[in-house]
Amino acid sequence: MIAELTAACADLVTDPDLLVSYQRDEADLCDSAPPLAVARPRTTEEVAGLLRVAAAHRIPVVPQGARTGLAGGANASANALVVSLTGMDRILDVDPANRTATVQAGVVNSALREAVREHGLTYPPDPGSWESSTIGGNVATNAGGMCCVKYGVTTEYVLGLTVVLADGEVLRCGRRTAKGVAGYDLARLFVGSEGTLGVITEVTVKLRPQAEPALTLVAEFPSVAKAGEAVSAITAAGLTPSLLELIDRTMLRALEAYRPMGLDTGVQALLLAAADTGPRAQADLEKIAQCCGDAEVYVATDAAEADALLTARRNAHPALEHLAATTFGDGGAVVVDDVAVPRSRLADLVEGVERIGERTGVIVATVGHAGDGNLHPNIIIDRTDPASLAAGRRAFDDIMALGLELGGTVTGEHGVGLLKRDWLERELGPVGLRVHHAIKAALDPHGILNPGKVIAPAVDSPA
Amino acid sequence: MIAELTAACADLVTDPDLLVSYQRDEADLCDSAPPLAVARPRTTEEVAGLLRVAAAHRIPVVPQGARTGLAGGANASANALVVSLTGMDRILDVDPANRTATVQAGVVNSALREAVREHGLTYPPDPGSWESSTIGGNVATNAGGMCCVKYGVTTEYVLGLTVVLADGEVLRCGRRTAKGVAGYDLARLFVGSEGTLGVITEVTVKLRPQAEPALTLVAEFPSVAKAGEAVSAITAAGLTPSLLELIDRTMLRALEAYRPMGLDTGVQALLLAAADTGPRAQADLEKIAQCCGDAEVYVATDAAEADALLTARRNAHPALEHLAATTFGDGGAVVVDDVAVPRSRLADLVEGVERIGERTGVIVATVGHAGDGNLHPNIIIDRTDPASLAAGRRAFDDIMALGLELGGTVTGEHGVGLLKRDWLERELGPVGLRVHHAIKAALDPHGILNPGKVIAPAVDSPA
């Protein structure tokens, strides 16, 4: 079998010391194991060859990009073949006349941006991991980011895909045209399917003209409820900021402890907002400031100051790691949660999360995309302490339940992976789950594609 | 069986005189027959009851909205139950704080716009039929329109759906939040599936703040190639007009013959363009004018003049009917084609279509969404003359082949229905077709949902 895999893809890793490094993504609390082997293909044809071997031998296949995921979607199991797409890093085409680019799945998000910048174009979706995560991974998880409040998430930018199916056949779906309705929207079925329906090897994306420089402000609120009201007021005023981020008190303190910025850690919540509306940006920012009511508002006076504010926001993850380490030492861990609610329920969500933290006795630091109603409550635990782990798990479950109760979803942008499979079932309900299983069975009848991710294997699954 | 159907939905039409009027949509050249019965449900539960009866008796089900489709997707057959959704016309919820609305499938596009206007919001997708077509039909066909060049097509606005599945189960998929990645993107799988995967009964759409008043221009070109160059130049300049429509010479003459506007019918092509970018609209329109090179450019000096230009464009369909009737009398018919190519190939498409018209000896009048590379070559035939019909069919096929050859798609926004099933197979290729059949079988194992539309029944289909 290894010989067959090597024949399909010469770059096949079986050295146990190396296999360990392909074991998991960045999610805590998810099972993983070193895989059987890791293939590092360079072409769609190599991926197809690998899948044909895997199909013949019923070997589970786990596609991986940069493993920056936060839900265990790329975690390996002991009997699995990992297909690492990071070596497929060629930008195949940039077409300024049609505002499209076609790339191999392993191209890093920031590399694509860099490549199209000279044409005055950009690829908007900006997940926190944009300097390391791959377009293939972004597509497989339908990644979001900070600019999505104005510019939308990954799926809005996917025009066409090349996908290797479970039997090794190569599907080209979608299009290169601005519009098209020829048949089912297969491309968007693969977007966000987390490698469970096929292995994405090439992506044609839509590009946009570069946004104009943004003006940025920060508003300090005496209560989370006031920050939530400001977000609602901004929406109600018909404004579309290019960024609208919320940072709660715990998160703010973690940021200041990690890299002091001189932010007032006495406030209960911060909103970061930006406007990139060209000649009207100044006026829009003033209207945003007005929507913030009594909050103290500081407008960044130059690009350097604005960058500093955004850098603070972008430091959220290392700041949380720092907080976990300083609180719990080596056992410290961060469970990054991800829940989205209707914008109007944002304050209810933040306040509810605070109450959950108090009730369960765990530290929860919240940051997120307020303008989308999409927040990341980060749960800080000591993974070496069973009581802390159990309390963290309770907080996690309570946050999921709260999100659903508020009319929301258990994942706004990080995906289901292994972490949220049970909660997905609750969100989908029995009919939705049945349709998921029917589609999975239609595209992957033997259940070899990233098994156990997103949905549990069907009871009668042969795999 | 009729008794069972009546028990499921009291408003069941079986009067042959009435059945005839539910026989077909607006597509020419597609088979149709009066159905067995027409059910006019008012609730999702009634639709579910109808589908349970249909599933038990293997009755083909043809969902219908306003039957304004142009591909035969809503055409009935003699053994079919038509489920007409036009009676499900309630707007269930308008939520300005979250910029969403939830409507029953039979709500007319313009009624939704009207209902959200008082909140300063709009629902952008504007198919030509917007004053009569339903949101359910728009979603089932992923309808486009004139504003899509800036604001995107229907699928960009669909957040959540209620769908009655082939077995009568009710699926709620998608979400009410701005973002969400919980499981497969089922909502977008149903968008554009033309009633072949389920019957859409309720839709939650995303709304946008109303656009600002647009400034409009018309540019007259001495050749189609020059108009195509202008479209490319507008894209290359990073401009995003809110409307960018092309009218060729034959279409222009038809418009003038129908409702004289004083447009110069000596020119080879017109572009209509608009900018709604607020304080910069004037500057953007000037840049658009510059991109038109040597063309004669007329800027509408007031809203009335701009409206008149758009009305001329909106009159395309009646003007073509008029042309067909004046040319061929009662036998005159218009086959509305719909092809999209990469924007950079637009001029090649228009010129190729002209050559096809000359070669086949049929009148072809072209109009369409130049900014999206999506054109409607309209073929004028005499349906009572077999030679004219055959020539029209040849022109139609040659235009499809040309679209694919230019890297395009056989349907930009009208859908596949019955009209383009063979061409869809060509566009998809064997792997894509196989995946379509697998998904159809997963969701409609007995093939009762709008059978024969989009894809031919599978060879081993039990229906």
From TrEMBL, chains A, B:
Residues 31-210 form the FAD-binding PCMH-type domain. Gene3D superfamilies: 3.30.465.10, 3.30.70.2740, Vanillyl-alcohol Oxidase, Chain A, domain 4. Keywords: FAD, Flavoprotein, Oxidoreductase. It comes from Virgisporangium ochraceum. The keyword rRNA-binding does not apply. It comes from the Bacteria. One of its GO terms (molecular function) is oxidoreductase activity. InterPro entries: FAD-bd_oxidored_4_C (IPR004113), FAD-bd_PCMH (IPR016166), FAD-bd_PCMH-like_sf (IPR036318), FAD-bd_PCMH_sub2 (IPR016169), FAD-linked_Oxase-like_C (IPR016164), FAD-linked_OxidoTrans_Type4 (IPR051914), Oxid_FAD_bind_N (IPR006094), Vanillyl_alc_oxidase_C-sub2 (IPR016171). Belongs to the FAD-binding oxidoreductase/transferase type 4 family. This is FAD-linked oxidase. Its cofactor is FAD. PROSITE patterns: FAD_PCMH. The keyword Oxidoreductase applies.
